[in-house]
Amino acid sequence: MHRSRLLPPADIIVLLVAMSILAGLYGTMWGGDQGADIAIIQVANRAPIEVPLARDARFTVDGHLGPATIEINKQRIRFAASACQQKICIRSGWHRHAGDSAVCMPNRVSAQVASTHRHYDAVSF
Amino acid sequence: MSSTTLRVATTRDDHRIAWLAALAIGLHVLEAAIPSPVPGFKPGFANIVTVLVLLQFNWRSAAWVSALRVIVGSLILGTFLSPTFLLSLSGMLGSIGILGLAQVSRIRFGAIGLSVLAAMAHMGCQFLAAYTLFVPHQALLLLLPVLMTAAVVFGIINGIMAAMILERSRHIS
């Protein structure tokens, strides 16, 4: 099989463009923060607290079992300490993409990264 | 009482489209039986037929074959007018649209180039439809690079298969 027939010049250009689109997609979708600018901290049966991500902060909320410390650092958010047993919330690590969230079920505390430009409060299926 | 037989005049083109559409539908249904790890990941082998029809015949036939595949395929699988069908339809419109543009541009694309173009347009439109109609959640965007990578990979594989089929059919005819 002739190489030229299998892959004409136009196809090579298509493949190069495809590769650059992929690189661009990974860069924009995985690299950026998609306009994430606030953290929404929720404790069961209480109004959600919105905190800007721009400023590094560390604060404690009272959950169902005890205190939970939430840390904001470099536009990211995480559970730094929690009164729960398994510490799944802490081990989920840093979250920085809009829509990402860390939830502590036993302590009934959740921290979600969000954008102030969001159009929906929630989506369910 | 005399019975009347209704006859529809069919052309050679109609028969050819019907045969090729049947082939595409067969691949479409066969593929539906393959389990997919994540919704959205599908090899899209029926695309091979579309690309072959475009290269051997014309865009009009390719559009007919694709449209018939989506509609009849969904009727067979029982997904007609369901979300799955809408996604399939939007993907089909995207791929056939870009193949039309490729045709109009008069650039001589090969099977691999056309297959990759179609696969990416298919995924792009399908994703747009999924995002706007069904899951308008920003987290879905994180899946786009992975889905597009799959589209490019399967586009290349399908393109190679289409190129090999073309090569063989040249030896036969």
SSE ordering of chain A? HHEEEEEHEE
**Which strand order spans the largest sheet of chain A, edge to edge or round the barrel?**
2-1-7-6
Q: For the CA atoms, what is the radius of gyration of chain A?
A: 21 Å
Largest interface: A-B, 28 and 27 residues
Uncertain stretches of 5 or more adjacent residues of chain B: none
- Which CATH architecture of the largest domain in chain A is right? Sandwich
According to CATH, what is the class of the largest domain in chain A? Mainly Beta
> Distance between the terminal alpha carbons of chain A, to the nearest Å?
51 Å
Would you kindly provide a written description of the structure presented here, covering whatever features stand out?
The complex is a heterodimer of chains A (125) and B (173). Chain A has 125 residues and is α+β, with helices and mostly antiparallel strands. Chain A has two domains: 1-31; 38-114, Sandwich (mini-chromosome maintenance (MCM) complex, domain 2), CATH 2.60.320.10. Helices cover 25% and strands 32% of the residues of chain A. Chain A is built from three helices and seven strands, in the order ααβββββαββ. Chain A has helices spanning 3-6, 9-31, 88-91; strands at residues 38-43, 49-52, 57-62, 67-73, 76-82, 101-104, 109-114. In chain A, the strands form two sheets. Chain A has a four-stranded antiparallel β-sheet with strand order 2-1-7-6. In chain A, strand 6 (101-104) and strand 7 (109-114) form a beta hairpin. The radius of gyration of chain A is 21 Å and the shape is elongated. The N and C termini of chain A lie far apart (51 Å). In chain A, 22% of the residues are buried. Chain B has helices at residues 12-32, 46-56, 59-77, 83-105, 111-134, 144-172. With 173 residues, chain B is mainly α. Chain B has one domain (12-172): Orthogonal Bundle (Arp2/3 complex 21 kDa subunit ARPC3), CATH 1.10.1760.20. Helix content of chain B is 73%, strand content 0%. Classes of the chains: A alpha+beta (125), B mainly alpha (173). The A-B interface holds A 1, 5-8, 10-11, 13-15, 18-19, 21-22, 25-26, 29-30, 34, 97-100, 115, 118-120, 123 and B 107-110, 112-113, 116-117, 120, 135-139, 141-142, 144-145, 148-149, 152, 155-156, 159-160, 163, 167.
